[in-house]
Amino acid sequence: MASSLAPPEVPMELYNVNREKLLKSLREHLSLSSRSLSGFVFLQGGEEKTRYCTDHAELFRQESYFAYLFGVREPGFYGAIDVESGKSILFAPRLPDDYAIWLGEIKPLSYFKERYMVSMVYYTEEITTVLHDQYKGVGKPLLFLLHGLNTDSNNYSQPATFEGIEKFETDLDTLHPILTECRVSKSNLELALIQFANDISSEAHVEVMRKVKVGMKEYQLESMFLHHTYMYGGCRHCSYTCICATGDNSAVLHYGHAAAPNERTLEEGDMALLDMGAEYHFYGSDITCSYPVNGKFTCDQALVYNAVLDAHNAVISSMQPGVCWVDMHILAEKVILESLKKGGLLVGDVDAMIVERLGAVFLPHGLGHLLGIDTHDPGGYLKGAERPKEPGLSSLRTSRKLMEGMVITVEPGCYFIDAVLVPAMERPNTSKFFNHKEISRFRGFGGVRIESDVYVTSNGCLNMSKCPREIKDIEAVMAGAPWPIKDTTVVASGNGVS
Q1: Which of 84, 93, 194, 472 measures 20 to 30 Å from 136, CA to CA?
Q2: pLDDT by residue (tens digit) across 335-368?
């Protein structure tokens, strides 16, 4: 299927807006602390890496904080922002003459100045001289370096290093929390790129949905998705490793890794759980669709699917600024547990199940995460915030209250994972909630996840993902109906004429 979409132009003004946002927050912080505005924000961009000891260059992708401030797609750059004047400076690597033979034209510094809309561009060996010349303060110039904990990965941002850094004062504490918080709320220019990533990814999911057949390999579904987003969306990068799980693989939360590379053959009766999202010019998407590979839901599949869909919709209907994300996760659990009780898999009081954390048996991961330049965008836990410790809640990637401008995924799921299900069925405090005969039928079922990317507005939210979600729509699209499906319902007016 051809696409109705085309890759949009990326305005470099986006990164100027990001820099101005940072400067405003940083200046406010320094002023409140009675500190001088003299100094530079100074970041090191990503370096190209080779595969182990070989000369095979891995596909380069820019370091995310550097991408956020400068939008530079080439490796080996440094960037500085004069806090007081607001001037932005890029430092480009000086390339050897034979670069032109193997990798193409060596661009002049003026090219990077114009392309990336910065005030000045110099070579990296000029960093010390240029910053000393630009500095208007007293003593050694101060560099605000990026160093802080990513609460998703538990890894630290690495501060910039360069020859001559000892000639500067450095601050390792101030920049990271301020710059991270800047990334939490998105500008309209950022939202446009995230929306395109969602649009092309949604379209690709529908394309896979139409072509999936029993007997295919999981990796063929991944291939179809990647082809569509690259062919029609210009998306060379995926936001993350694709999860193309079918059958009992759909209960493996991060399936698709090197030890399980989407290689199972699709069988009759399988549910597919496809978690795939394209990245466009650094900004990503993260979408999951679940459906039977033969295009028709069984009663059991519909029971589990609708439990997750109801949770997905209940959360989106409740989202608005000020709402606590922990409460949204508990809401999703409650809806899923109520549905499983209604379907005869569980018995007893749902509120009591919540207290005993039974929801974590079926939904062991967090409800969602911030999304932007990284799939798991930073800022989920502010400095001093404690991660919940209860089962399920401890997996939440944020415990914050929602605020306007956030983009966050809503991804409830319901899985039948023996590693957590069997112990829960045996523990005295939770065993009583199971209809053991009925729940045993779902051992080996796998799981269902429905994931959309949602933008928090001033008074609610907007779902940026555009995939079929209702069972009737999924079955219609898999049978060949166009998407979006046109509503042909006849609504009678007062005189009986539609």
Answers
A1: 93
A2: 999 999 999 999 999 999 999 999 999 999 999 9
